[in-house]
What does this fold into?
Amino acid sequence: MSRRQPREWPMVALLLPVFAIILGPFLWLVSSSLKTEAEIGRGDPFALPKQLMWQNYADAWNVGGFGSLIGNSLINVAGVVVLTLIVCAPAGYALAKIRFPGREWTFYAFIFGLTIPIQAIIIPLYQVLFNLGLINSMAGVVLAQVANGVPFGLFLMRSFFLGVPNELSEAARIDGANHFQILTRVFLPLSQPAISALLIISALSTWNDFFLPLVVLISPGNQTLPLGLVRFASTYSTDFRLVFSGTVITFLPVIILYILTQRRFTEGLTQGALKG
It folds into this structure.
C-alpha cells in the first residue's frame, strides 16, 4: 500500500458529499422515470419504484414524437459543429499568428461577447433572422447558435495556436506556403486536442440548448429534442411520468458522447487549449 494513500483520505472525504450532491438528482430522475404516476404523486424522492415501468420510455418516445425530434437535433448539432470549426479555426490562426492593425482590439471585441448573455441581445438577433427569412428554419437556429458560440471557440483556438512555435510557420513560409496552406497542413494537424475539445463543447451545448430553439423554431416539425419535453405539459396538468422518462432519453446521448470522448476532451483543455 502506498504511503501517500492515507494523505488522500481527507480529500476523498471532502469530495464524497460533493459527488453525492451532483449525482443525487440524476439518480432521482432515473428512479422517477421508472415509477407510476401514483408513485410520483406521493412526493417521496427516496422511494424506489415497486415495479420498473420501462413502458414509460416507450410512451414518452411515441407521445413526444422523439424520432423526428432527435433527427432535428442531430441536424442542428452537425450544422453548428461544422460552422463553428470553419469560423473559429481560421480566425484563431489569424489572431494568433498574423500581425495586422487592430489585431488585439479585434480579439478583445470578440471576447467581450462572452460577457453578454444571449437573453440581452435576443430581440435584435430575432429581428436580423426575421429580415433574412430564417425564422422557423434549421438554418436560422444554427446561425444563431454559431454566433453565440464563436467567442468561446475563437478564444480556445487562438490560445492553442499561440502555443505553437513560430518557427514552424516560418519554415513553411520559406518553403513557399501561404497562410491557408500553413493553417491546413501545419496548424490543424497539431491542434487535434483543441479541435476535439471545441467540437465536444459545441455539440453538448447545442444539444442541450433550449432558449434559442424556443425563440427561432415555431413549427412542431422543426423543433429540437429539449423543446419536445414541453409537449408533456398542458395548461392544467403535466404528465411527470413522461417528463422524467423523456428527460432521461434527452441526456442519455450526451452522457454516452462524453464517456466516449472524455480522454480527448481532457487533453484539449490541458494541452494549452485554455492558456495564453
